[in-house]
Amino acid sequence: MAEHVRVAVIGSGFGGLGAAVRLRREGITDFVVLERADSVGGTWRDNSYPGCACDVPSHLYSFSFAPNADWPRTFSGQPHIRAYLERVTDTFGLRPHLRFNSEVLKAGWDDEAKHWNIETTQGELTADVVVSATGPLSDPKLPDIPGLDTFPGAVFHSSRWDHDFDIKDKRVAMVGTGASAIQIVPSIQPQVKSLTVLQRTPPWVMPRMDRGINKAERWLHGKVPGTAKARRGLLWLIREFQVGAFVKRPQLMKATEQIARNHMRRAIKDPVMRAQLTPDYTIGCKRILLSNDYYPALAQPNTEVVTSALKEVRGSTIVTADGTEREVDAIVFGTGFHVTDMPIGDRITGVGGRSLAEHWKDGMAALRGTTIDGFPNLLLIIGPNTGLGNSSMILMIESSINYVADYLRTLEQTGAAALDAKPEAVKAWNTEMQRRTARTVWNTGGCKSWYLDSEGRNTTAWPGTTAEFRRATRELKLAEYDLMPAPLRTAEPAKAVAS
Asked: What is the reported pLDDT for 489?
């Protein structure tokens, strides 16, 4: 018989570990965390490319219940964030719940038994509740490029960096100019023989106000925790005030654009190159990037910016849409992730055996970013319309975790086996999301980005403040759900008694 648990959490990044901590705090210890890799960390485990770091200040990019007084920099690098998650795992006693190398292959709702049947690479189990914390930046997206499979050199995505490949003195093509690329480019530029950056759309790049956090600051934060809390609060408040420009008055972003233009002008002296690197959309339409060394790296003699997409590969030659050809030894893709078409959608089936991917064929939608009609007892961490463009996703994760906790308490209080979000509740929530996102910079800024799906719908970004999302997820509204009673159990026949 398959093992049964009260809760199965999928993923051990910030979302999965945060959910696990909250489960233990709620007195729930009958749970497992299913992780496809061999260690915790999620995107901060997978992304280990040169220069990988966070673009949210360290004291805001950490759990409120697990402050870290020892962040070494105001914007911490990948190794320090990953180490922080390992410490959280140990501090809150999560190791016994972790199941490594346990990729979820299938998760199907059993309407008769009122539980989830889960198939993993390590076997099968069942769970009353599934919390999916796989994250939107977990499955890399690679373009279908003719001839790529015959390329004789190294080919890899930024989130799957090949550390066995020695990049020194190599001719490298960097495909893409997103958040990962602007960290990779200046990190490898001094080492490579030549660097060809393929840019379809230039990003807006702002100065990165990064510095080391000195020993005195760290000592103070450790000895007087209130100072670290105050620092976090100030960082949060500044970003809350910025929200209005993103979601209500994109025209206010013009002043920010000027800062970005001045930032570029200081490093890029060639007016032709500046024109190539200047976006034609409103800043904020795509994620605003932070870097002090990206533009200087582009200005170096061994770097070339090609403003055209990769069209095909012929042997060791890359060919762009404008006909540019370059011989390279390695191709690095910084081409993003499957965000609006999450691969796990094909692996989860709800009532009647309908897959989540099929259910979402007209666009992702979830009630309060967390639950989906027809998928009882399935809860999402970083679900539809919970993404941010200017602040810390940890704030949104903690709000969703609060909702998960109240969901589980509601199951206990009502005695129901499951809750199923009402279709009309999900529709009403999604209609409001689409109404509000329609006026945001992500929809009106004149760009194409991963915030929008293939039909131009914004199914990823949250059109409000993090405080507003916290209020929206503070408690479950029972009127938005149908209650499913526990299955009737047939009494076992009485055993015959020998005379």
From this structure: 64
